[in-house]
Structure formats: structure tokens, C-alpha cells
Amino acid sequence: MSEENAIVFDIEKFAVHDGPGIRSVVFIKGCPLRCLWCHNPESQAMEPELLFNAGKCTSCGQCAAVCPESCHVIRPDGVHEFDRSRCLRCGRCAEVCPSEALELVGRKMSVSEVMDDVMKDQVFYQSSGGGVTLSGGEPLAHFAFTSALLKAAKEAGLHTAVETSGFVSPERISALMPLVDLWLWDVKASPAKHEKLTGVPADPILSNLASLNDSGAEIILRCPLVPGVNDGDEDLRHIAGLANRFGQVRRIDLEPYHPMGEGKSLNLGRTDVFHSSFASEEDKERWRRVISSLTKTEVHL
């Protein structure tokens, strides 16, 4: 088995919304997009990162005692100061933190290590028609690792799925086609506003989607919708239009925005924290109504 490595920040077990049956979802760190609303901001950078939740900190000082760069200082008034500019992301502080205020996100794993973890639940995949889903971040940004992991999963007889933004070279899409049973294809916004909202243009993504469709791949469109940002009529028509244009699209999944990413962005020390409100029931009904009126493809919400 290949010993390619990548930074994995989570392996979710018993997932039932990321492909058929019971699945393990492998979240690979690193993404070329910078979606404003990203609910996993810790997935964007390629390297491990340290989350610091000041609200959980008890100022016990154990982190300061083990930090090799003196990044953590407990002031006399009990305030915990954390200097990220000095942090090596070694994770020693997180290992000793009793209140879990510190967490190192991401660790290097080999294909063998991931497969050993995934295969612990083989009996559930077999009984439910499930398997493994690669997500992120952007799994296609780690082509060698993703290819090797998908190959190993197929050799083990597992159903394979990949959730992707599709922002990758056509050659990589073509190379992975034989290894992927289901593509969970993210639709972020209409082409006119795509680059402004995600940092990358839509044209390469749409071209890759067309290639997948022509190959006969099974596709589900996944559409994160943020009220007032990417849920206008133009965006909804774009989603329906993709389903009508590409006959291999089996379903449209609408995913309402939730603010999970806000707290994590703050805990990563970021200042450019995106904020939006939850979608209302009226918002959700409008999304479903508009898209369903324009396509016969099944819409899930």
C-alpha cells in the first residue's frame, strides 16, 4: 500500500449524509478556495493549526510550562496571552491542557494509517452499502494521497465518494474517474459572483463538471446557501440549470448556512470573521420552490 501522507484533521465515523449507507468521512486539510462563509476555516491552511478557546481556559499554566517558545503567558490577573507569531504548532500545549481550551487541528497520516482506521467499520459498510468519503478542505489538492487512498479503498471493496469544489486540473479529474463511485460536487455561487465569494473563477470548475458528466459519473450537487449572499434568483437558476444541463446529476442537496465557522475563526486568531444569520423557513421554502419549478431533478433540504 502506498505510504503517501497528508494532513488529516478528522475522520468522522457512522456518517449517513455523505453518500450511500454508513460511511467514514476523511477530512483532509488544505484548500485553494477561500469561501467567505466557510464553516470549517481550520480546513483551509495546509499545515496543522492551533485552536485556542479562551472561554474554556482556566489559566492553570500547564501550557506555559511545556511550550518551547514561551508562546503562552499567564498574567498576574489570570489572563492567558497567546503569541501565535512564535508558535511552532508542536501541539505540546494541547496535549497537557486539562480544559481542552487548546486543540491542535490536523496530523500527518499515511494511507495505511487512514485505511486501518476506516476498515475498523468494514462490517457496517458491507451491511449498509456504505464506504469511505473524502472531504476537506479540498481532497483533490492532495492528489497523490487522494489517489492512493481511493485506490486502496477500491481494492478493499469499498464504495468511494469525493466531495470537491472541482477547482483542479482536468488531468487530475480524469485520472480519478475510475476510482470514484460518487462525486459530491459543491456549487458555491453563480459564475458572475463566484470569484468574489470564493477567490477562484467558476469556468474551470464548470468545465470539469462537464467532463465528469460526459464520462457517465454519478453526481450530486451540494449547494451551500447563505441568505443575502449566494441565494438570489440568479444563483438558484444557476443550480437548476446545472441539473438540467448535466444528465448525470442525481440530486440537488441544499445546505443552509450555519455559523459554526465564526467561533472557530476566532479561535484560530483571525480577524476577518464572516457573519450571517441563519436561513429562515421562508428562505428555505423559496430556495426549494424556485429550484423545483425549474428542474425535475430531486431537491433535498
What tags apply to this protein structure?
single chain; 301 residues; alpha/beta; nine-stranded mixed sheet; two-stranded antiparallel sheet; 11 helices; globular
Summarize the structure.
With 301 residues, the chain is α/β, with parallel strands linked by helices.
List the helices and strands and how they pair.
Blueprint: E1 5-15, E2 23-28, E3 49-52, H1 62-66, E4 72-74, E5 80-82, H2 92-96, E6 102-105, E7 107-110, H3 111-118, H4 122-128, E8 131-136, H5 143-155, E9 159-164, H6 170-176, E10 182-186, H7 191-198, H8 203-215, E11 219-225, H9 233-245, E12 249-256, H10 260-267, H11 281-294, E13 299-300
Parallel strand pairs: 2-8, 8-9, 9-10, 10-11, 11-12, 12-13
Antiparallel strand pairs: 1-2, 1-7, 3-6, 4-5
Mind explaining what this structure looks like?
With 301 residues, this protein is an alpha/beta fold. It is built from eleven helices and 13 strands. The strands form three sheets. Strands 7-1-2-8-9-10-11-12-13 form a nine-stranded mixed β-sheet. A two-stranded antiparallel sheet has the order 3-6. Strand 9, helix 6 and strand 10 form a beta-alpha-beta unit. Helix 3 crosses helix 5 and helix 9 packs parallel to helix 11. The protein starts with a strand and ends with a strand. The mean pLDDT is 96.
